[in-house]
Amino acid sequence: MVETANHQHPQGPPPAPLQPLGGARGPLFAPNEQFQHLQYCIHSNPRWVETFILGFQHYIVMLGTTVLIASILVPKMGGSHGDEARVIQTLLFMAGLNTLVQTMIGTRLPTVMSASFAYVIPVLAIINDISDETFTSEHQRFLHTMRTIQGSLIVSSFVNIVLGFSKAWGRLTRLFSPVVLVPVICVVGLGLFQRGFPQVANCVWIGLPMLIILVITQYLKRIIPMSHVILERYGLLICIGIVWAFAAILTVAGAYNHVKEATKQSCRTDRSFLMSSAPWIKIPYPFQWGTPIFRASHVFGMLGAALVTSAESTGTFFAASRLAGATPPPSHVLNRSIGIQGLGTLLEGIFGSVVGTTASVENVGLLGLTHIGSRRVVQISTSFMIFFSIFGKFGAFFASIPLPIFAAIYCVLFGFVAAVGISFMQFANPNSLRNHYVLGLSLFLGISIPQYFVMNTDMNTGHGPIRTGGGWI
């Protein structure tokens, strides 16, 4: 029998809607393609004075990684403080050129292209391999090592060039669904945890106050509405100035006179020796260290690092697109950007940089911290990179900022980028157990596997956990 329309149903109050999880704690928000709190997006620009101050802030943020890489590698190569200053100048000069090209021709996103940590282990392996050779002086050993690194960088650059301009990388990135982007971007931020609090702990006297003040400024801008704009846009520079001055006072007062030498190196403001050793004017030029040396056994490690930077830059580009209010980069843009990144690494090898280039994660985090995703701001920052790379004494002044101050900044900025990666989950099904499986496995292994190699790699020699007769492995 068919039920008729006249059939009477018992009347009663409609069922109460189910209370969502956490509904008592606040409202629910619908997914948004773009962040709603950006004050300037990729095509809108602040006033020129603000643009230059914000550009200088981007320069300061990327400077920490540059100085850290040079301070790790150059002494192991036999270089002096003067050599370290010249390496920093070269890295800054190439970062300025690569950033300008990437923002004008590549992705055209507000991303800074700076020195990559992915190349540190291969470079350490080269340094260790050359350490057995005999040289007339430490400076000669430094020059020979630099020429060998140059040759390896030149060859490895063709990995990015081929992947990009052959359109192979774009075909791969077409498979990047939101579920894939979450671990890609999260690991880009979280995978750099060793440059965060472990470096802060090298000098808790200045690293910890810097981290605390950075967090407090985020609350002060809400408590004091008049200071909201200043603390939001320039709070990072204000914090650096306060803690840097505090570090200088502690240095002059003799607070570090009876501590370990490693602590002095991290805490004192007069331990970099860059001001006294940097030249007043020095323009980096091609093959400034000599003719590159090509050795097959040294190239393989660099090839792996070049492949890593392709994935690292891709995740950073997607994070930058969200923080700049831009659409996600399509495959043809990623092809072009990775190819241009390869050309940048080629120039790094020609000009004599100690490592290759990648998209700077910390500078992308700064876009979110300041709520300003303007491309012009990043392009203006290249003028500071190039200027301070040529006029070495001025650049050395800012390069002498103690590294724990930068490490405290990275604790905030790297975490910001990782959080942006999590935000991509709103475009996927958060209740799918399959998605949970993919995310959990990718995030855990993405952090756990590199940690295995870090724990089993001798940072002094570059030897990893694989023990074979072939050094290239």
UniProtKB/TrEMBL annotation:
Pfam families assigned to the protein according to its UniProt record, in alphabetical order: Xan_ur_permease
Compartment annotation: Membrane
GO MF terms, alphabetically ordered: adenine transmembrane transporter activity; guanine transmembrane transporter activity; solute:monoatomic cation symporter activity; uracil transmembrane transporter activity
Entry keyword set: Membrane, Transmembrane, Transmembrane helix
Bilayer topology annotation: Multi-pass membrane protein
Keyword field contains Membrane: yes
GO BP annotations, alphabetical order: adenine import across plasma membrane; guanine import across plasma membrane; hypoxanthine transport; uracil import across plasma membrane
Subcellular location, principal: membrane
Region (Disordered): 1-23
Keyword set includes Transmembrane helix: yes
Transmembrane segments: 56-75, 111-130, 151-169, 175-193, 200-220, 235-256, 377-399, 405-425, 437-455
GO cellular component, one term: plasma membrane
NCBIfam families (alphabetical): NCS2_1
Similarity remark: Belongs to the nucleobase:cation symporter-2 (NCS2) (TC 2.A.40) family.
Official protein name in the record: Nucleobase-ascorbate transporter 3
Annotated source species: Quercus lobata (Valley oak)
Taxonomy of the source species: Eukaryota, Viridiplantae, Streptophyta, Embryophyta, Tracheophyta
